[in-house]
């Protein structure tokens, strides 16, 4: 192994003359004051230490470095061998188990190759390189006075020759011509999206209620998020329950690319608050059904789903920034950064099913400038 | 290499290039360029190498990733999600993880490298700040560095938003909520960013282009400028023996630094590969596809966004509604103020410091943090400020782990947000001055040897040894502050830069900067190397 030539360029260490101990810098001196202790055995000795160690130690260091390089070589070969020989068996990689296995082999061998090579080079630098620290001058960065004067002269001469100083009309019309060109690209960004108009002020509940009314119904049924099943009052009669609902027909009546966007606005939580603890907001006395109450699930802070409901305190908590709303009291804010109550959806009963009789009375989700 | 002719394999290409580019002069000047040595100089290198690794792994990922929000029904080798509706972006990320050999490894290296990139930039910036390495002539490179950190935050946010899993969708939802809160133009910014209402179908392709093309190109440009300026100005050095304003001392670029930095790249890559192998990161398959009605508790952004998250969490719910308009201070203040203070403060600091101290000289030798107590104390106050907000971004996790009320953690951070930096400032300044005092004592009286002597009359004393040259050079690197010339000279004429209210402010700040400075200097009588016997009682105190 010692005869391999992985490191053909490793310089031969030279015996150290008595008076040329390399300068050392940036190190905290040992209080022991014994400089000879440092040079030979201190593994943190600086680069260029090769100058100080004898031929036998250098040979040993060379063998160690070469061993690490061989290890890196073996690891890279192992990587290739695993890839070609094993990773593709039974028709290639698929699934969790094979991913876990290949991640371990690829990653482990790759890390081994890199780290072994890195350690080898580091030992090489620290033990075998014979470069000595050197000193270089720093120079002032600025130009001297003559150069600056010469530049100024050339600059003024150029300005003069071009006539830009003598002919203000040229200068001003050029600036005038450039100004609108600079703004034009911003106009090109106009079609990035539609104008906000009124679209933040209503949700799909409005369309759904309108459609139900047109069919002579009282309101639109609430369907359970996920299953799409309409919800009967009797299905949701035990106090303390919470469920996420959407307006019926959202998926059926909307084009596919609209479904997620409309869901993001219409998503609503339905909570069964014990009727004796429920305090309806003034003017909304008939918006609940025996304590079953519906609020927008989109937090009024920055729009995370306010998805946690604590049965004992009847608090609705948004897990993103901990805004807390009181379900018994119109979902008003009791803690956290949200400023406004969760908007409430007016509920009623029709044929034993829970229905919404109108859209949320105010915009849902985070506040915005035009909200008012 | 001391031979007169280089090997043919080197000589040939070298001459080819030289005759066309005139490059040998440059190589000749720079081959042995001196690089001063200090462990903290490697922090920036980690950032550079993480960036290179990000480019390599990121390119790999783009070969399979589909930046599309079109809905598909998953039918792939991660069987738990078979039949689930999801975006193509999420499905292709699952494909990379479970069907491409090495795909998961590359994804995890990419994510870990992003985290390491931002961490090492931050550590590098702290090193530069606390040692005063940003001082003239390096202010511009310092500003470039701050720019790269800001771009890195955006790049990271956009990057982890791409897979369109539940966690990344939640991050985008918050981004949308913050955009909406901007006064006057908020809803327009929101509509234009998302191409309509959230989430729409445009945001992932748009973020993809920004993430793989625009921002990396900007960062690459800034990295190049950063490196070229650093090379041109020469690296700063720590205040140790042989390092002066006129010279730089260290090992030559070729071969020592070249080999060391090469090894360092390999170390960085190796450690990232190790992390990616054994430490799972962002397991998007466990989160599921994005669903605007779903959320998991303990949702956390990557660490570099934590400070914004924390600010959002602890802000009181102030909102102003007047004249038909709503101003969401509860969102605007946390989104703008804390990072505004940090980044603006960091950017103007070099210029403010030069103005206050009146120091317009170029500096190439760094300062020890203790020797600039006001700067160090301000820095630690800023670290405290940032750190508290960052911790506040995990207040739910903290409440859970330490079994305290969630509201109590929020109130803790609301109070310490103001108090913490002040306490940090005071303590740090005292520690710095204490260290200065200790340095002054060591320089004046020598090192404690640990040898206790008994005098013939029974008195014990400790022997003090002379300092080694290296140590003396470090301690004496302190530039003792000189009192400013009085604001008015003998004839009552005010000094040029102390006029007016700004001049008065400057004078006061200058006094605050220097008034309690403790001179570290050698006394005339022990200029040589004689041994102090340490009889003075004050020496026995420590």
Structure description:
The complex is a heterodimer of chains A (372) and B (542). By secondary structure, chain A is α+β, with helices and mostly antiparallel strands. Chain A is built from 8 helices and 12 strands. In chain A, the strands form 2 sheets. A 7-stranded antiparallel sheet of chain A has the order 10-5-4-3-2-12-11. A 4-stranded antiparallel sheet of chain A has the order 6-7-8-9, with no helix packed on it. In chain A, helix 2 packs antiparallel against helix 3. Chain A is flat and about 95 Å long. With 542 residues, chain B is mainly α. Chain B has helices at residues 8-21, 24-30, 42-62, 88-99, 103-130, 139-161, 166-180, 186-194, 203-233, 253-278, 284-287, 306-314, 329-357, 373-392, 395-401, 406-445, 469-475, 500-514, 537-540; strands at residues 34-35, 71-73, 85-87, 247-252, 320-322, 325-327, 447-454, 460-465. A two-stranded antiparallel ribbon of chain B has the order 1-4. Chain B has a two-stranded antiparallel sheet with strand order 2-3. In chain B, strand 7 (447-454) and strand 8 form a beta hairpin. Chain B starts with 7 loop residues before the first helix and ends with a helix. Residues 526-542 of chain B have low confidence and may be disordered. Classes of the chains: A alpha+beta (372), B mainly alpha (542). At the A-B interface, helix 3, strand 1 and helix 8 of A face helix 4, helix 5, helix 7, helix 8 and strand 4 of B.
Give a concise summary.
The complex is a heterodimer of chains A (372) and B (542). Chain A has 372 residues and is an alpha+beta fold. Chain A has 8 helices and 12 strands.
Characteristics:
A: 372 residues, alpha+beta, four-stranded antiparallel sheet, 12 strands, B: 542 residues, mainly alpha, two-stranded antiparallel ribbon, two-stranded antiparallel sheet, 59% helix, disordered C terminus
